[in-house]
Please model this.
Amino acid sequence: MPHLLAAAPGLWLTAVFVAPLLLTVALSFAHPGFGDVTFGFTLDNYRTALGGLYAQTFVQTVVLAVGCGALSVLLAMPIAYFIARHAGRFAGALLAAILLPYFSSFLIRVLSWQVILASGGPVDSVLHALGLLHAPLDLIGTRAAVVIGIVYGYLPIAVLPQYVVFSRIPRSTTDAAADLGAGAWRRFTSVVLPLARPGVATAALLTAVPMLGELVVPQLLGGGRGLLLGQLLQTQYVQSQNYALGSAIAVLILVAVGVLVALLLRLTRGFDEAPR
Amino acid sequence: MTLHDLRLSRRNLLGAAGALSATAFLAACGGAGGGSAAAASQLDIYSWADYFAQDNLTAFTTASGITPKITTYDSNDTLSAKLNSAAGTGFDLVVPTSGWITEYASRDLVQKIDHSRLNLSTLDPSLLDRAYDPHNQYSVPKDWGLQGVIYDPRAVGGDITTWQNFLDAGERPGVQGKIRLSGSGWENVGVALWADGKDWNTTDQSVIRAGGDRMKDWVTRTKPQFTSSNVDPIVNGSIVLAIHDQAGARRAIEQNPALRWSVPGPTSQLWVDSYAIPKDAPHLDAVYSFLNYELTEKAQITDTRFLGYPTALAGLRGKLPPGIDNVDLIFGGAGVDLSKLTTFVVNPDTIPVYQEIQTELHALS
Model:
């Protein structure tokens, strides 16, 4: 019976996950045409995907995803810590306040930033009123706007796992550290943070991995300037209809994700042992 | 809480993450509207967003009892990719841009129009029997547009009458970085080809690449954006020089009359969005019934007013009611000579070259 029960999700996973993955890998070695492929074995797609412009885009995207992921995790950390340790009975309400926007349309939230950051928009007006800016605000269409949009978009996902882990750290551990003379900062860095590693790592994973394929924010806030992997991938599949090269890029992204996951798992290894 | 409890947290976290993605997945499924059972008198249209006047759709439903179900795409590339895959089956009517029709016909993705069931005699002859579809075997023109330039004359230092003017204007201080190019590779490379007097439909890849090189140099210096049909940044001055069509120009100029629009010479693009019927369209009777309704004079005028693009009705300009703002702009502005304009025809041999150049333009901007 348990085998039968496992068969249903097993089949589902095979159909919607394993089969498309195998097809993508097979396509990545095929000979491309416009909207057409001839199955075979060539490394040309990988040669193209790892050369010149494509390699440069790959590196830029990984740097952006890792940077924005780290920024999201760092910004979310004090929020999660505060809610978990100091918000008391308001914790649920505060979490809801952070998560509710996340359940609204991602597109609408990003489009809102177009209005907020636009020349003549609220940020522009406030900066002018404070005398901090004298020329019109020209943020839309820049990499800075993309970073703001991405970090904002993924912040709630960075808060949640960190909140869970912070809230599960027994107060007795920090109390004991305090008794032994550790100050607030020392308690945080030597006791709380090491115990929170799995939450921090999960937050990093849940933000940096989707950021590798981010498509909407660079398009809407970055004016399509510069090139990131998500756009490159979409271009190959939709515009160039070069499914072979698109698949090779997709496989390389999967490898990058694999490396990222492995690194983060390495970071949390030893967690099951008693904390140092 | 003990350390044992804490040890479970990673698994719990991953479980929570799984639940989160499952929720998102279910939400996405719900958002897609689910699969409704096919009705007998159904019409599935795959088209650009907001491309049919609601008044027309309502009147057609009242007259025929058929409620068209419209799914939308945002580019010819998306339409092409979908028609070319299993996901593209089941549509009754699509609205590709002129240049794609030859390609669709050659791939057997669209079927021949049954002219015994349609009356095209009310349509403008200059939009019929064109090179991309001789004798309108596969397409019926819906509406048309032009590739031109919206600009702020104070920023660019005067009028833009040629594509060379456009390229020069982009290099002026104060204009660099405030430029918007097209999202299409051939429309952007077209600028260099037109400025140099070259044939836009050339099959000579070296000519296309030379045009691409010229645009890449230009983009490296001028840092343009590549975005949507949203004209707000043009109206508020964040963009002062933009490739656009006439409907966008009309919207922008209505909000900011200091802006100007031109169709630069020596030539530019004329596109004709056209009705085409996918190969295995399941509801052919409904399709012809809908097309016959859409081709009536009343529906064509209503669509023109709704879209801001002129439909294919012969003598349309004289038939529009008085009092429409900037009516000239609907037709591309006063003095536009359609016979001098070019229509791009998609060629599978050159498309990858144009796409490759477009990718490089994005990277260099």
Q: What stands out?
A: The first helix of chain B runs from residue 3 to 7. Residues 114 and 137 of chain B are 8 Å apart (CA to CA). Residues 1-39 of chain B have pLDDT under 50 and may be disordered. The two ends of chain B are 55 Å apart (CA to CA).
